[in-house]
Amino acid sequence: MGAGRVLALLAVAAIFGVVIAWPLTRLAIEALGSGTAPFIAALGPEGVDAIRNSLLVALTVTALAVTGGFALALLTEHARVPSRSFLLAGILLPLLVPDFVSALGWTRAFGPAGLIDRLTGVELPGLYGPVGIVLVLASGAVPLAYLLIVAGMRTRAEPDLERAARMSGADGAMALRTVTLPLLWPVIAAAGGLIFATTMNTFGTPAVLGRPAGFATMTTRIYSDLAFSSTDAAFERVLGLALLLVAVVVLVVVLTDRLGPRRTERGSIAGPRGATRPAGRLPIALTWTFIVLTVVVPLLALVLTALTRAVGLPPLPENLTFANFGRAIDSRTMPALVNSLLLAGGTALACVALGAAVAIAPGQRWRRRGSGIVSLGFAVPGSVLAIGVLLAFGRSLRDSLLIILIAYVAKLWALAARPIAAALDRLSASAVHAARIHGADGPTALRTVTVPLISPTLIAAGLLVFVFALHEVTISILLYGPSSATLAVAILNVQQLGDPTVTTALSVLLTLLVMLCAIPLFVLRRWWSASLTA
Amino acid sequence: MTDTVVRAPRRVISVLAAGVLLAACSTSPASSPSAPPATSEAPETATASTSTPASTLPEPSGTVRVYTSVTQDTVDAVLAAYAEAAPDVTVEVFRAPTGELDARIAAELRDGQIGGDVLWGTDPLSVQSYAAQDLLAAWSPPEAASVPEEYQTDTFWGTRLLNMLIVHAAEMADPPTDWADLTDPAYADGVGIPDPGFAGSAFAVLAYFESNPDFGIEYYEDLAENGAVQVQAVAEVLTGVAEGRFVAGMTLDKSARDAIAQGSPIEIAWPASGAIALYSPVAVFADAEQLVNGQHFANFLLTREAQEAIASTGWQPIRDDVEGPPIEGEQVSPDWDEVFDRQEELLMEYRAIFGG
Amino acid sequence: MSLALECSGLRIAYGATEVLHGVELTVEAGESVVLLGPSGSGKSSLLYGVAGFLPPSGGEIRLEGRMIATPRSQEPPERRGVAMVFQHYALWPHLSALDTVAYPLRRSGSDRGAARRRAADLLDLMGVAALSERRPSELSGGEQQRIGVARALAREARLLLLDEPTAHLDAPLRAALVAEIADQQRRSGAAALWATHDVTEALAVADRVGVLREGRLVQVGSPAELYERPADLWTARLSGPASLLALDIVERKDSQAVVVIQGRPHAMSLASDATSALGSAKVLVRPDWAEFGGDLNALVTARWYRGPHTDYRLATPVGELELRQLGPPTASLGDAVRWRLKRGWAL
């Protein structure tokens, strides 16, 4: 290893120490400060119920979302679909809708007195309860899985490998099982691990849909204890449960990584992409049905709610108004928006750079370990991570944007690192070797070959981090100061006023805003990839 | 009622003791250098302030940091009034839901220094907890006489009242009139109640019913048997009734009145046996950096101007002499001191019935 | 039905761009047909169309008389019973050589043990038995392609598609592997459709050669036909070294003609598809169709010694001529030499 590489790796390790290791250590010290009591409390019968429920929900959601995302990726990447851009937009749209209103959208759409109920008298049975939680979370996670899997597929197109299987007598499903799936495993594991961790950490949906059924998850218990965190016992229980949750998430993520092939071969197969066959009618119809049911209808229900004069009124013309949008924003919204955009942009850049930095790690094993270790930050529920960051840096960085940035990077590093590491796994080593032979030094090869080749993943990871940071409502609410209020503060202010029409109006505005941000990025991406292939 | 509230002389000792304990226990190397001075100053200032009549305080200037979970519209109204009363003071507000606010305080406390001067809570429970940990300065506002006695303690004072009452669908043939009606089979599967595990106001309701022999925890058993549904947030009950998911439920007076004013198809029923009232206390942290300004702001909350500002946002002011929203019947409260010691137990009893 | 493959009016398009414009091609059972053409001429597209990876936009494909692809419906690749050797090997990075070759056998229903035994035999047949536990990243290009061929043989197909199987190998390896593939293909009795841009490979293994130019089949015939009677100059240049002389034909009878060179009549064998017209003509001459001696004058402008024979480039009054003579060089650069024209192909 050259000195430059050593220095770069040391810098990454130091950042890890500051943003993830030290806050988590502070959390552990506080939790262990009073012995094992918090953990024993967390493992009581109620605690065990919550752990079981959380695992049940998270594993089901991960399985469903990865399957769905993979199926959609096959449809759009391996077959020719009509009106492809609309289909892609439809699949990815849920990523732009803040997840704190996704449960609201579903209850508005399919719940009692919801849009569908009003129109047809039919409501979705089991919406309030585990079934509803799984449905809402899984449909919300499908675009995440889709995005990561497609990015991985594009890192190395290998249609010839599947063709070789078909030539050997395997039908489509067999080729999928014996060739496509094993080769995509790192990408699928990365997507699955992230979805699992996100689902284990999610609070809004289980709270709204789970409470009516008395269904508690680890996060709802953590938040319930947080409400009583003025007492030591409850505060320590929060930390105990959160650390337990981290342990469970990390255990499952590590196991997933282990389950995969120990070593992913990096062949040098290119092969022409070739023209793809047109997709069948049934898959396309199913996909559009899925998009309409899980994206369009809930979004429509949200927009109608945002436009309704008062909660409970039917969405008839005489009840519609734009007044809620006015009530949703005030003089604090603009500075909060600016802060959130700055933070989200900064976090996205930092996380992609840090994630890409593992590319210079000496080998695949180290890359995997690296992306595994940073998952620690992603595994901590947002509010508890914020507590850890406060414990670690509260006095020196109080009220600054920097302390929020630290927490965001700690939380979202893995969201960029895991997909990037997975993409690197699939990258052909000979591409880099060729660059070195032809006169590129290490950094040049990284810049001119590695980065362009994994750029679909870098862009996808950056967008994900940006949107996650913009939509988060659990971290900055604990960390902000007079001049560093974020959108989370504005959202919770509005949410606590208790009028869903205003909350919905704000989230509709937020969705539109992210769409506006996403369109230039989309254009830019096309321009970028065009300039790379030129 | 004052059993758990410590008198000033004993307070000093316990603050000292807490300070020593805190310094000894502190595991963070960063927190130890500054922790002892901060806590050793606390008793002095606390004693000084109790003996200084607030009226002789100099005109304040500088900044004051307010930690609050009170809803934003009310904070805004009060801040606007305060800007006129103390134009030289810059108020920095950290507003977050109670859980997040308490978590921030807990973290800052363990890091050695709470970042706020004033604590303005939504319900008494968490503030009681800080009082019990001797984190609050003893203090008596100039307007003390205007605050009803049950909302006074040595360290925190009530600023407004939140009333939990019954809300039901408009144009109902036979609407519920009292809490007991919600267990009537006529409203089977149609009653929404807020989860006391998440909201202080819902917890107040639980505490009141459980400790009242007329109801007891059996009241919740009856509700559950009648198919009542728990929801996470208090406002969700209101939304549920307005949309027709529920026919009736328990919610807060102000949100219900706001929704009705906008045209939501709901009505309020003031329970015959009394709405369950909880009060939002204000306190000043004992080791506040801006103790004087903090007390000035806290005092202000009890003045007529501040109380009118609170009333203007639809909440009931604590002062009887300021006109607030209509009070249409009895108001009852749990015994907060008794409740304080039994929080966990109450929640366990409740969860055994409604799950989670 | 003795036809292994029949393409009629086959058109293939990538979106709006048509790359095959109505190809008529048949391959008889056991026959080896080579598609010759420069890159971009549509060879791979034709192969991928037959394999089932590209749907026809027009025309149809039959395998052993069975309709397998029309623009409306296509049999999936795995049910066509054809095997393929890929240009870039397309070995699966996650499978060992043995598992790779066993793969098609497993798909056709062999149990694991039988499949692996047969796969080991095939690896042995291809001379790579020692590599059975290796993965692609541990193998050289030649080794990878031997495994690719073994995999295709394991399919036991009636038609073998070979997409420039040796394009990425170095020359000595290439010739050996081509010969081996051809040998194995003949032994298996399967028909073969090769794609290549290498004319020596094409002439060596083909029963018939089809020349593809910009998506059109411009000539189909035996290797000798292609070499001796190319359809046009483009095909002639593609199918081997060729010179073009401007000759004045004064007399023709059957395949004999008299032409005037250096003002003197000169008898030669001259074939042509066109009616025997007299007058000036462009005549194609292969290097072995002229020889030293005779009474025509020329100047040596280049010379290449190739071991068994020597190639010369001569400047003659009727144009530049390439001439091949057995044995070591007998003339040097700049020498004035005498030569004679034995035969030609009038275009």
What does this structure look like?
The complex is a heterotrimer of chains A (534), B (356) and C (347). Chain A has 534 residues and is mostly helical. Chain A has one domain: MetI-like fold (Orthogonal Bundle), CATH 1.10.3720.10. Chain A contains 24 helices and two strands. Chain A is globular, with a radius of gyration of 23 Å. Chain B is globular, with a radius of gyration of 21 Å. With 356 residues, chain B is of the alpha/beta class. In chain B, strands 1, 2, 3, 4, 5, 6, 7, 8, 9, 10 and 11 form an eleven-stranded mixed sheet that branches. Residues 1-55 of chain B have low confidence and may be disordered. Chain C has 347 residues and is α+β, with helices and mostly antiparallel strands. The radius of gyration of chain C is 24 Å and the shape is globular. Chain C has helices at 43-51, 97-107, 112-125, 141-154, 171-188, 199-205, 223-228, 233-238, and strands at residues 3-14, 17-28, 32-36, 58-63, 66-69, 82-85, 159-163, 191-196, 208-213, 216-221, 243-253, 256-261, 264-271, 279-285, 290-305, 309-316, 319-326, 336-341, 343-346. Chain A binds chain C through residues 159-161, 163-172, 174-175, 178-179, 182-183, 261, 264-272, 274-275, 277-278, and chain C through 13-15, 44, 48, 51-55, 74, 76-79, 82-84, 86-94, 103-104, 107-108, 135-137, 148, 151-152, 154-155, 161.
Task: Chart the SSEs and their pairings.
The complex is a heterotrimer of chains A (534), B (356) and C (347).
Chain A: H1 3-32, H2 37-42, H3 45-78, E1 79-80, H4 84-96, H5 102-110, H6 115-120, H7 130-155, H8 159-167, H9 172-201, H10 204-210, H11 218-226, H12 232-259, E2 277-278, H13 281-307, H14 323-328, H15 333-357, H16 364-379, H17 382-397, H18 401-426, H19 429-437, H20 442-453, H21 455-471, H22 476-479, H23 487-496, H24 500-533
Parallel strand pairs in A: 1-2
Helix pairs in contact in A: 1-12, 1-17, 1-18, 3-7, 3-9, 3-11, 4-7, 4-13, 5-13, 7-9, 7-10, 7-18, 7-21, 8-9, 9-12, 9-18, 11-12, 12-16, 13-24, 15-18, 15-21, 15-23, 16-18, 17-18, 18-21, 19-20, 21-24
Chain B: H1 8-25, H2 35-51, E1 62-68, H3 72-85, E2 89-95, H4 98-110, E3 118-120, H5 124-132, E4 156-169, E5 191-194, H6 200-211, H7 218-225, E6 229-231, H8 234-243, E7 248-252, H9 253-262, E8 266-269, E9 275-284, H10 291-301, H11 304-312, E10 316-317, E11 331-332, H12 336-341, H13 343-354
Helix pairs in contact in B: 1-2, 3-11, 6-13
Chain C: E1 3-14, E2 17-28, E3 32-36, H1 43-51, E4 58-63, E5 66-69, E6 82-85, H2 97-107, H3 112-125, H4 141-154, E7 159-163, H5 171-188, E8 191-196, H6 199-205, E9 208-213, E10 216-221, H7 223-228, H8 233-238, E11 243-253, E12 256-261, E13 264-271, E14 279-285, E15 290-305, E16 309-316, E17 319-326, E18 336-341, E19 343-346
Parallel strand pairs in C: 3-8, 3-9, 6-7, 7-8, 13-19
Antiparallel strand pairs in C: 1-2, 1-4, 4-5, 9-10, 11-12, 11-14, 12-13, 14-19, 15-16, 15-18, 16-17
